[in-house]
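[#protein-structures] MJ: dropping GDP-mannose pyrophosphatase here for a structure pass
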Amino acid sequence: MDLRETRIDGEVVYDGKFLKVERDKIRLPDGSTSHREFFRHPGAVVILPLLPDGRVLLERQFRYPNAQVFIEFPAGKIDPGEEHLACAQRELEEETGYTAGKWRFVCTIHNAIAYSDEHLEIFLAEDLTAGQQKLDQGEFLETFTATVPELLEMVKRGEITDVKTIIGTFWLEKILSGAWTPD
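AK: finished. structure tokens for GDP-mannose pyrophosphatase:
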């Protein structure tokens, strides 16, 4: 069975500075029609910053839609035309002040497939060197470190609920055990 849905026409319902909301009329696999409303997102990168002592660099940041502080890996939006690795390098330095001597691509994840085309490109950053944060205007966060076992406990206790951070933690566990090797 062909499960694809085909766009007939559509419109941009909201065109914001960061997100677009689209509403498309589509043809379903059985030939009937329906509508889909979804966010267009430029994509983002996620960095798994591994310090020489095996600790991981993380952030605490308030996220307005959920009105709470979240524990997260450094991450950021990909600018138009920006290479994914260049974005990861830029975001790590801006948010944490660190630069990395070694970068490896880990994987791509799609975190909201039912209502967004957002994709997250995850990179492992190693051989870190500390520097000065270069936060964007209006950006506030604090950094801290934890071990992978500590991160796993935070996930288990529900202290980390951010999906990119949970997936990144599971990847780090596999990478550090030697079970998985990123590109």
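MJ: nice. The chain has a mean pLDDT of 97.
AK: one more thing. The first strand starts at residue 6 and ends at 15.
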